[in-house]
Amino acid sequence: MHSELLDARERLGVVIRASDDWEDDYRADPAAFKQLVKAERALERSVLTYLGGLADRVPALVQWHQLSIRAAADPQVIDPNDPRLQEEKTEFFRQMYDGIESLVLLGGLSGEYLYGVQLGLNPANTLILDAARSHTGTLIKEITATNLRLIRQSIGTSIELGEDGSATIDRVQKVIANPVRSEMIARTETVNAYQIGLEQFAHLTNAVSKTWQAKQAGACRVCAPLNDVTVAIDESFATLLGPRIRPTAHPRCRCGLRYNYK
To answer: How far apart are CA 186 and CA 177, in angstroms?
Structure first.
């Protein structure tokens, strides 16, 4: 996707995302909220750029010679020991880390604003850096696993439909470079990273418990029952999708947390 088109998409997206049903605490500091929305759109651009590049590289990763003798669902359709898979992880980290780090820091700084406690958090803070690296590493594993699954499924579909090699490649590339998936990843990971930063602030300031915030008019059936539920600082919230230590509870979740000190 050309950079001019990405720029226009990013500018439009900032306006649209600002109108989403964000929990109130995200909007408490207007300057920070503006940064948050811009960071989300920048993250989406990074995801879109990476997945678009991966789509171009996918044909070289697939062991096409195996498809006639091995089911497409077999993990060996892509060799798990192929060094290019590690190169993909490195590239994904390169594309994503700065955006994740800035959002983790923004979450911590928003904690300073919301609770009136100045810790002097900055990009060189060890806790911020460690949290950003850890989350980016986890994200790499999850996205890589999903990419491999989507590739196998797409190839399997092509085999079932009797498509030729060109059509199979086209199908795989469209699935990998899907802009809707890029948008979903960015919206989800923006809140995840912000909330991780806010969590670091809460631990540094000795918060004792946390309360889930899902007051939005459009709160879903997963999040609505969590509104005003309070648990101890290190406990998980019980949701319909399993335990969650913090938002997000599901893709595109806009819920928040309030930390309590007594």
So the answer is: 14
Taking CA 94 as the corner, what is the angle to CA 185 and CA 190, rounded to the nearest 5 degrees? Answer: 30
User: Strands, DSSP E only, in the chain?
Assistant: 209-213, 230-232, 237-239, 242-244, 256-260
Tell me, what's the pLDDT at 179? 95
214 neighbors 191 (Cβ within 8 angstroms): no
State both tokens at 121: 């958090």
Question: In Å, how far are 9, 44, 107, 116, 244 from 15, measured between CA atoms?
Answer: 10, 14, 21, 29, 30
**Where are the domains positioned within the chain?**
3-205, 207-262
Residue 80 amino acid letter = P
What is the distance between the alpha carbons of residues 89 and 216, in angstroms, rounded to a whole number?
36
| 55 backbone φψ class: left, alpha, beta (φ>0; ψ -120 to 50) | alpha
By CB neighbour count within 10 A (0-12 exposed, 13-18 middle, 19+ buried), where does 36 fall?
buried
Give dist(CA 12, CA 224) in Å, integer.
29
How far is the C-alpha of 255 from the C-alpha of 262, rounded, in Å?
A: 22
Contact 37, 72 (CB under 8 A): no
The pTM score is 0.89
Q: Among 42-56, 112-126, 207-221, whose mean pLDDT is lowest?
A: 207-221
